[in-house]
Design a protein that fits this description.
By secondary structure, the chain is mainly alpha-helical. 67% of the residues lie in helices and 5% in strands. It folds into 2 domains: 188 residues, MFS general substrate transporter like domains (Growth Hormone, Chain: A); 61 residues.
C-alpha cells in the first residue's frame, strides 16, 4: 500500500540513456513544517529574474543619452535579455539532473548576481549589451529551476499554496520594475538598477544554501546536444522575429527568413526528439491515446 501524499515528498528525475526513472524520496513527518524558507529563496530568485526584464525600460533614455547611442542600439539592451533567456531554458532540465537542482539553482543565482555587477560597470552600449546577454543566462535558467524545485519539496495536496505564492512574484515584479527603476534613475544613478541585485542575490544564496534540500545528481544523465541546438536556435530565431517584426517589417526578407528557419528548426527538433533515448523535451508526452 502506497503512503499518502502528505506522508512523503517525491523528487523525481528522468535519467538519460533509457535507464528509466530514478526517484529520490524522503519521508515527511506529519508534524514537519512546510518548507517556507526554501520557498522564500525560490521566490527571491524568480523575482530578481523577472524584475530585470522590466526595470531597465525606464532607464533606457538616460543610458542612451550618456552613451550617445541610437534607438536601434539601445533596444538591444532589452531584446538580448529576452532572446538569450529564452534560449537557455531547454538546458535547465539536464543541468538539474546532472548537477543537482539545488547546486544548479544557486549557481544561476551567483552567475546572475555577478553579471548584474558587470552590467553596472558597463562603459558603453556594446559592453552593456554583452553583460545583459550574460545576465540572461542566469536569469533565464532560474525560473524553470525554481518551479521544478517547488514541485519537488512541497506536499502535493498543498502545492496550490506554494505555486500561488511563487506565481505572485511573476505578477508583482513587472509592476514594480518600472516604478523602482524610475526612482533609482531619477534620484540616484542608472547603474543602481543593476547593483540592487547584489544584496538581493547574496541574501538569496544564503537562504538557499541553508534551506533548500539537496538533490542527488544523476551521474548517467547525457545531454542531447543536437536537440538542444535545434530548440535553442529555433527559439532564438522565433523570438528575434517577434521582437523585431514591427521594426523591420513583417514581410521583410529578414523576418520571413527567421520565421521560416524557426518553423523548420522546430519541426526537425520534434522529429529528432522522437528518435533519441535522452530527449531534451520528451515530445512523446504530447501523443494522444
Amino acid at each position: 500500500m502506497q503512503p499518502s501524499a502528505s506522508a512523503r515528498a517525491r523528487w523525481c528525475a528522468s535519467t538519460s540513456g533509457g535507464s528509466g526513472v530514478v526517484r529520490q524520496e524522503r519521508e515527511r513527518k506529519p508534524s514537519e513544517p512546510l518548507p517556507f524558507g526554501a520557498l522564500f529563496a525560490l521566490i527571491l530568485g524568480t523575482f530578481m529574474a523577472v524584475l530585470d526584464a522590466s526595470i531597465v525600460n525606464v532607464a533606457l533614455p538616460r543610458i542612451m543619452a550618456i552613451f550617445n547611442a541610437t534607438t536601434d542600439q539601445i533596444q538591444w539592451v532589452l531584446t538580448i535579455y529576452l532572446l538569450v533567456g529564452g534560449m537557455v531554458i531547454p538546458a535547465t532540465g539536464y543541468l538539474g539532473l546532472r548537477f543537482g537542482y539545488k547546486a544548479s539553482y544557486l549557481s544561476c543565482i551567483a552567475f546572475f548576481t555577478v553579471t548584474s555587477m558587470l552590467c553596472g560597470f558597463s562603459w558603453n552600449t556594446n559592453a552593456l549589451i554583452a553583460a545583459r546577454a550574460l545576465q540572461a543566462i542566469g536569469g533565464g535558467m532560474m525560473i524553470p529551476l525554481s518551479m521544478a524545485i517547488v514541485y519537488q519539496i512541497w506536499p502535493r495536496e498543498k502545492i496550490g499554496v506554494a505555486m500561488g505564492l511563487w506565481g505572485l512574484t511573476m505578477t508583482l515584479a513587472p509592476a514594480i520594475g518600472p516604478t523602482l527603476g524610475g526612482y533609482l534613475v531619477d534620484y540616484f544613478s542608472w547603474r543602481l538598477i543593476f547593483y540592487i541585485n547584489l544584496p538581493v542575490g547574496i541574501l538569496t544564496l544564503l537562504i538557499g544554501w541553508l534551506f533548500l534540500p539537496e538533490t542527488r545528481p544523476v551521474k548517467g544523465a547525457k545531454l542531447d546536444l543536437l536537440g538542444l541546438l535545434l530548440i535553442s536556435g529555433s527559439c532564438f530565431a522565433l523570438l528575434l522575429a517577434l521582437s523585431k517584426g514591427h521594426e523591420w517589417g513583417w514581410g521583410s526578407q529578414s523576418i520571413v527568413t527567421l520565421l521560416t528557419g524557426a518553423f523548420f528548426g522546430l519541426l526537425l527538433f520534434f522529429l529528432w526528439e522522437l528518435t533519441v533515448p535522452n530527449p531534451v523535451i520528451d515530445v512523446r508526452l504530447l501523443r494522444i491515446g
